[in-house]
Specification:
Elements (H helix, E strand, L loop, with lengths): L2 H13 L4 H17 L5 H16 L7 H7 L1
């Protein structure tokens, strides 16, 4: 059975689910799979790498939350 057929069959089965705990479990599985396969863009990876490198080079160059909060 190809993927499209399997999806169609699964949707038909899903329509007949009448127990909340089964829906909760399916939603958790789908959410976990979606989160596991999310990709971080190259730009975001670069920004994270830059921030990490900056922290490694200057670990004491930080702002505390109260300072930031008061400035905004």
């Amino acid at each position: 059975m190809d993927l499209s057929s399997r999806k169609y069959h699964f949707i038909q089965e899903l329509i007949n689910v009448d127990k909340e705990n089964i829906m909760d479990a399916l939603e958790r599985v789908l959410k976990r799979e979606k989160e596991a396969h999310q990709e971080i863009s190259t730009a975001h990876k670069k920004e994270l790498d830059n921030r990490l490198e900056s922290y490694k080079n200057n670990p004491s160059d930080l702002l505390d939350w109260d300072t930031v909060k008061n400035d905004w």
